[in-house]
Amino acid sequence: xxxxxxxxxxxxxxxxxxxxxxxxxxxxxxxxxxxxxxxxxxxxxxxxxxxxxxxxxxxxxxxxxxxxxxxxxxxxxxxxxxxxxxxxxxxxxxxxxxxxxxxxxxxxxxxxxxxxxxxxxxxxxxxxxxxxxxxxxxxxxxxxxxxxxxxxxxxxxxxxxxxxxxxxxxxxxxxxxxxxxxxxxxxxxxxxxxxxxxxxxxxxxxxxxxxxxxxxxxxxxxxxxxxxxxxxxxxxxxxxx
Length: 241
Description:
Layout lengths: L3 H34 L5 H25 L16 H22 L3 H12 L7 H33 L5 H14 L5 H22 L3 H11 L1 H5 L15
Helix pairs in contact: 1-2, 2-5, 3-8, 5-6, 5-8, 6-7, 7-8
């Protein structure tokens, strides 16, 4: 960083990501679950809107450290990949596998919804309107979370823990990524932590956030593909359509 103020902001951002965000997200999710149980039909839409707003703020803050804080974009992963053919090829293969998996799971959507009800039920879209918002959340997560976890924290750890290597950065940031999904319970923390390790590997391999952003967003977009809203009966109007 180029100034004491910028360094302080970096410390505050790191502290928020590591210490505050997991518990804030859990609290936010628990409140949404209670509102759903109370019968509020707009709970999910409000939750999606709040998540998109948070993603926009996160994106602007991390981007601000690059644009105004003196951090080179390449240090944050905001750059072209080492190899475009490798990046495009991996994005196509991994994205294709994720989409194929989602389409194969669609016939089992109801059973999956019941299985996931206790962990992420308040996030699963029901109507087409909620589905559209979830698409926005998925794309926003791919951008903002990769900027914050893989981009900013990789840079931050390299700056303030100078002897740390890429494998150690990948492990630490994956643990933090898992904890950011604490609202899903400890099993969800473990699963997303492993996913974070894969995304960190893609970042190190490609030298850019582009590939992990695409894979991250595509992974989250499996949800609206699997839980495709059912058509309304004749004469019925779905909320949000």
